[in-house]
Amino acid sequence: MQTNQFDKAVNVLFKALAIDPQSVGAHIQLSAALYRRERYESAEHHARRAIELNPAAGEAYLHLGNALASSGKIDEAADELLKVANKPPVGLPALSRLIHLRKTKPGSPELQILEKLLERADKMRDEPTATVHYAAGKAYDDLGDYDRAFEHFHAANEINKTLHPYDAKNGTEQVERLKEFCSRELMARCEGAGIQDVAPIFICGMPRSGTTLMDQMFSRHPKVQAGGELRASMIALGQSTAIRKALQEEAPDAEVTADDFTRLGEAYVAAVRQEGIRSEYLSDKMPVNYRYIGLLSLALPRAKFLIMRRHPLDCLLSNYFQSGCPTRIRVSVLREPSTSSERPKAITSRRMRSPEPSVVSCRSTRSSDCSAVSTASKLNVAVPIPNGCWTVR
Known about the structure:
The protein contains 18 helices and 8 strands.
């Protein structure tokens, strides 16, 4: 579970329950693992079973609420989350989920619990304090108190700047090196490399740009197995010594051959199979994949790449208002400006009326273009794509 190998965890936990069907802990952990694999009905079943065996098992109510919410059973989910929203240690995550699940109203029970937590937020560790501030930002946004909401969003992001520092200079250097490495010469020299066994659909784009929605859409197709945010590309690149050394400028680019990209493809498929994915067609929405489109297109010639595009302000604001978004550090600049209280109100109200991302057009970038520009990180990343790329706006 701690290494995010949820399919393996599911298999182990089913074996544990075969040995001891009354194990509350196994039911709870299995519910959590099934939820992460988007098997919501099964997750709900095991959470309910844990509660039957031990009605005081607080974590089971949290997982039950999450599973119900993801299944669209919002009212049921809210009821289950509220049962433990004031009970440590699961109270805070349950409260945060509840507040983000439905609109906060004056006098609502979650608002009362939240305000008590805010009174002692300065005595908490940094991470739970940030969670409280994100929840407060959402709650006061719902209530129309935009100045107060923005203060809490800002406080949460300031904490996360310390917890999760981002090295912009190093990030930019890595991207520039990838652009340099994925040259026309490399693409031509290694054309025909890779493996044909699978046809991954890489859904790329900035977090909050619509990647999850697109992944869910593909998962409804009978031939596509949804992978979510797979670590397969990172694992494969870590095992590809020749490519990694070239990228780190420890070896000449010219030493990288077509066989190296074939091995990269084989490593990716092996990592995917380890996750329990057997389908020929699969979706992978790991955010960092957009950096490696050039490498992955050689390793997996049948792959398709979708770059989700949403208005930059909407993406940045949505990340700023969300706990757990990997780009949150980069958007803390939003709070800099004027002393006028109208600015937070204007920013927050834009979020309230901004539409969710939708697909309005698609266009293909063919090999003659030899370039796809990813707007996901606003770093103007350009990488060669020999087999086509779709941009979804």
